Amino acid sequence: MKKKLTSVTFNDSAEKREKLLAVIEEYKGKEGNLLPVLQKAQEIYGYLPPEVQKTVALGLEVPEAEVFGVASFYAQFKLNPDGDIAIAVCLGTACYVKGSGQLADKVTEIVGLHPGETTSDGKYSFEATRCIGACGLAPVMTVNGDVYGRLTPADVAGIIRKYQ
Amino acid sequence: MNIENLTTIQQSVKETLDIRAGIAAGHKRNVLICGGTGCTSSGSVKIHDAMQKALEERGISDEVKVIQTGCFGLCANGPIMIVYPEGTFYTHVSVDDVDEIVNEHLVGGKEVERLLHKEKTASGNVEPTSLSESQFYKKQHRVALRNCGFIDPENIDEYIGRDGYRAIAKVLNEMEPQQVIDEMKKSGLRGRGGGGFPTGLKWQFAADQPKGKKYVVCNADEGDPGAFMDRSILEGDPHAIIEAMEIAGYAVGADEGYIYVRAEYPIAVHRLQVAIKQAHEKGLLGNNILGTDFNFDITLRLGAGAFVCGEETALLTSIEGHRGEPRPRPPFPAVKGLFGKPTMNNNVETYANVAQIILNGADWYASMGTEKSKGTKVFALGGKITNTGLVEVPMGTTLREIIEEIGGGVPNGKKFKAAQTGGPSGGCIPAELIDTPIDYDNLTAIGCMMGSGGLIVMDEDNCMVDIAKFYLEFTVDESCGKCTPCRVGIVRLLETLEKITDGRGELEDLDKLEELCNYIKSGSLCGLGQTAPNPVLSTLRFFRDEYVAHVVDKKCPAHVCKNLMQYIIDDNKCVGCKMCSKGCPADAIHVNDGAVVKEGKKLPYLVIDQSKCVKCGACIATCKFKAIYKS
Ligand SMILES: Cc1cc2nc3c(=O)[nH]c(=O)nc-3n(C[C@H](O)[C@H](O)[C@H](O)COP(=O)(O)O)c2cc1C
Ligand code: SF4
Ligand code: SF4
Ligand code: FES
What we know:
The complex is a heterodimer of chains A (about 160) and B (about 625). Chain A is α+β, with helices and mostly antiparallel strands and about 160 residues long. Chain A has seven helices and five strands, in the order H-H-H-H-E-H-H-E-E-E-E-H. Chain B has about 625 residues and is an alpha/beta fold. Chain B is globular. At the A-B interface, helix 2, helix 4, helix 5 and helix 6 of A face helix 2, strand 9, strand 11, strand 15 and helix 18 of B.
């Protein structure tokens, strides 16, 4: 998936930073450590802003470019934070043949975001996912992790409104 | 832990498993609730918790055991609950139904009629059916899925109760490594990850490498978007994979295994973690397994969502912690794999057959299936099909049996158009080939591939050019970019498809597409690039007329491609209620100036200004009089 760099300002906290440094310490020197460390870093911060990537690079003694290379390669890694209202539409095949493409268009129309983007005030984010495992409910979207299924484009606005 | 201990555990769970198998009757009941991802999304965990609480409140939690299982298969009707020994099959259950089920059924002994799963029988009546008698189950044959929806995947004793860890015991006590490999060869099992490579041969290659450090890997990356066979096996029967990896480790001489599983599968990851821990505690994993000198341990590695990491060399690079880019082969992983050591990698479903082959014999396994494709195959049925879900059938079952009988056909009276297998690497089987017996070779012969088991059904409302474009968008996103034919070539393919669906296509584009496809197939480094053109080639082969309609007539016959279709209001049906114009985001619907006369009265009707319409489809959904159609 093409990844967009973030425009949201980074908020660090001493507590999070400490956790991250502990993770780095735990994995330092182990074979194949970059992926697990980034996964844990994302658990801590919710995404991987440049500042976090830099800390990981310094800590594990790998080039920053390699960290960015790995972070941008894998779909799981988020370069943008989730919005307060995090919307995702499934574009897995089962959902797509049942019209999830139109759901995605509708979300874009309503919140003005394309997949992979977060509004700069951090309020909304929009993601296109690949199969969340609810194919029996296709087409599906999720808002803050709640699954909504068997949707038509007409249902989208009402679902988003519930979170506003 | 030794064999006697296994027998003791088996005895201890016999009663509860017999109740579920319908062998033992009695006052004790087992309530099975699906805890797979599909039913979890529709709230099955809440149902489980509410049920447990209700039973405790009534003081009957000793008589009724509530078990969260893996997927039953019939995801479309979830959340699913089954009550044994009666075998009562409840579908579409919600939290609000729990009290009624407890009071009426579990206390009162009377089934809750309205929640029973019902099906049309041969006589035409709609009647309740049990799971095993349903159309969906009757033609299935469960080997890889035998424990899914039957045992509690987080309780190792139940797995042992189903002859679990008997196969590794047999292998360690009675068989030489080479005998194990010979048995696999004789069974005819082929890799279920897509390639169909004979499993026994693969084990032989790894075993033939000089003694020393070797690895066994399980590919649980399941990249095909919309396929969920492997996930369901891991969620429903994780110990079967652990046991099979041990058997493989013994056969090839490895003492360490890695399972590469998608981080997007949190339930599967959790169940694997629980299973690994329990197997350790019981001495069934780790050092001196079952009291022998065989050591084997397993590490979980979470994949981070990259389709190309399903390709085995990319997967190994990813386990090593890098961007998951494929490596040229040779050297093959069997020679130089993970961390430079000989490595044997199989898919989840491949492993799921292994213990059964050891216990029941290669001849038993080879008696199922076709001449060159033995055993069964699990499919994830999805798309325009009534029974979305997971099915396992003997190889050689026809597509018609899967779609019409097991799958319950295409819903809403629509016509079946094609089935897609093999995901982004595969192709379409058109309606005229619906009687094709499904096995590796038949699918390859028609330019399709078995793939890992995703089976997506499409009806007359799906545009085949759009579907090809959908898969290309996926592979463009997922190409790792290492080699040029793939990185650049498939982007060109996608651009050409976009040109066609936008209405700018020309007839000669179709030949260019074919030429480019063949170039990409032969020039790419790994399987992703080599197979990415397949969805285009296969739709061009079977649905060329649809491509031609797009480029010559500038029409999308399925009315999907926005630039090649219009929404039109039928003035014979429009009653002038203006509901559509209120909901139109583009303000494209206006009352017609020239009023028409209907039944002596002048009625206004609405028209769509095509230059403003953004083709969102909202109007068609709002019109109660079905006056709006696509053209
Ligand atoms: C692009 C690409 C994606 C693949 N994805 C998967 C996958 O998700 N799961 C899988 O088991 N095999 C996948 N494979 C096949 C593996 O490379 C490998 O053949 C397989 O894991 C071997 O196991 P098997 O012999 O048991 O099938 C993929 C191959 C390619 C080229
Ligand atoms: S074929 Fe595509 S995915 Fe495979 S190595 Fe080349 S660029 Fe990467
Ligand atoms: S399809 Fe959408 S934009 Fe076009 S007329 Fe209907 S509601 Fe308006
Ligand atoms: S394809 Fe959308 S949930 Fe599976």
